[in-house]
């Protein structure tokens, strides 16, 4: 589904991706983890073509993504911070996106699931953080795509909305979708991920199951396993 080879990206003097190699097969929930600033969002944006790498190659669904954008229509991307135009109403935003994508959608069902009906006429700038995140979720899950990329999807959600999000992610998983997620909430990752990728110093430091990571670090839970990885590498 995704193949990244020898990827380099520098911002000024900051070498964020430093010869990163990564392969992700089709189907499954993959958590991209790493300390703050380790390059998770940069990697995701390179895969989406939103950040141009200095060197290296990326294939998405067997297609090299250099100088092409068509593959993007097969990806549902949920950004970490959704920069919605503040003066647009929720309903108008949904209509705009539906007009742009021109394919069947699940808007009505998802608006009901996240209780967004009372907010449909409101301007985006007037919504609470959690409600904005629900709008972000509806936009992400509205269309049927083989690849979903979710950057910190749980931010600001109340427990009921979090349960619904997890259900949605599992549903997509059971339909054979590939779902890439970044998160700092280890409880969420442990519950949902089939595979964990740990980014450190611009490369993949670990790729495997949560169970394998716990075994490798001799820890009983994921939070401690990740903390052990961070301490070990910081001490090295
Ligand atoms: N457009 C940019 N210009 C300059 N520096 C950037 C830019 N985008 C990212 N960076 C820097 O690259 C590094 C990696 O950032 P990135 O957002 O990819 O990290 P992250 O792993 O997603 O972090 P977090 O866990 O905090 O969300 C950081 O030091 C960040 O400041």
UniProtKB/TrEMBL annotation:
Name of the featured protein: ABC transporter ATP-binding protein
Lineage summary: Bacteria, Pseudomonadati, Bacteroidota, Flavobacteriia, Flavobacteriales
Pfam families for the chain: ABC_tran
UniProt keyword list: ATP-binding, Nucleotide-binding, Transport
Residue ranges of every copy of the ABC transporter domain listed in the record: 2-226
Membrane-spanning ranges: none
Species of the source: Muriicola marianensis
SMART domains assigned to the protein according to its UniProt record, in alphabetical order: AAA
PANTHER family xref list: ABC TRANSPORTER ATP-BINDING PROTEIN ALBC-RELATED (PTHR42939:SF1)
Annotated GO MF terms: ATP binding
PROSITE patterns: ABC_TRANSPORTER_2
